Amino acid sequence: MAWTRPAFGGNLMATIQCPDARPQIGTIRPGVFKCCEPDDSRTAPIVKEDIKVGDGTVRTRLIERISEIAGGLTVDLENAEIIVSGGRGLGKAENFYLIRDLAEALGGSVGASRAAVDAGWIPHAYQVGQTGKTVSPQIYIACGISGAIQHRAGMSGSKKIVAINKDAGAPIFSVADFGIVGNLFEILPVLTREARKIKTNA
Ligand SMILES: Cc1cc2nc3c(=O)[nH]c(=O)nc-3n(C[C@H](O)[C@H](O)[C@H](O)COP(=O)(O)OP(=O)(O)OC[C@H]3O[C@@H](n4cnc5c(N)ncnc54)[C@H](O)[C@@H]3O)c2cc1C
Asked: Residue 51 belongs to what H/E stretch?
């Protein structure tokens, strides 16, 4: 059995083989695979096993479930249908309001690049990418994000990608379905205003 995983900071994909050890267990991140359409014609046998586990056998126990919370908001990027993400192009933490406003107008969630997280502009729970969340929303809007391979690793499975960047040569445009070359400080308020108008008239 061969396993593929990113190595050297995501710059290459390594194929790992463990010929001897069995059983082998692989883990994948949420959002990596797209859900199939329900197919009622398919059936599978349900086998009910009567398993008795003695009290002393399992050494771990579930005490409580805690949702990831950042800045008072629950972060559920993996299940978001629309994500508006901000990167270093925002310039400073205060400018994240542009991302929040558009996300709110579209009924979506906020995401971020690692550069924005490392700068302390937004908590790590919002980070998309190799060392953040893997997401596959219907629409991913990348604003002021260059599209480094480590960022793309977490969002290239999105159904439609919109990129807003002032540099026409930014790698994000290579995965984008729609691209706007320009200044996000001019573009985002217009998009937010139009999204709000549509919402109000709907
Ligand atoms: C091991 C490892 C793991 C990593 N994991 C992740 C990860 O999980 N997620 C992640 O995102 N990164 C990750 N990185 C970092 C990654 O390599 C990049 O450094 C990072 O994604 C860059 O973030 P950015 O695109 O916001 O910043 P930059 O690369 O600096 O890009 C900023 C962009 O903003 C644009 N811009 C600037 N001003 C404006 C404006 N006014 N209007 C429009 N556009 C503007 C610029 O043209 C530029 O393209 C990882 C790196 C390593 C080595």
From this structure: none
